[in-house]
Amino acid sequence: MFKSYLILISFSFLLLVFSSCAHQSEGILLYSGNLDVNLDDKSLIFGRVVDKNTNEPIVNANIIIDSTYLGTGTDYNGNYKISNIPPGTYNVKASCIGFNNAILFNIKIEKGHRYLIDFFLLEGSFGPLINEKGISL
Question: Is 43-121 CATH 2.60.40.1120?
Fold first, then answer.
């Protein structure tokens, strides 16, 4: 008796999975043959951005990897994650309105590694003041 319920539940689960896939018109790739995927080719940077004085999370701070199109914003808890980073040496910048920017220079990203980088920002200006001609004051 238990075995028939188990088979029925398993069949129902498979039916549910396949029926949900059948309704999707995009995002499904059918491939015939061998497919070698190395998920470790790209690396990941993750961490938190907080106010240095209060240790409170900074929401919507920007994290940007210079010389790439990669970047993200922090969530409600100040957490961020940037994935699919190719190996190389980068400058990583954290910025937010009302805080001074923080830049980590020459961060070496190696293939398949995960890096925890926390930023501690100080309240301050938005950046250097410039006049209408673009010259620093």
Answer: yes
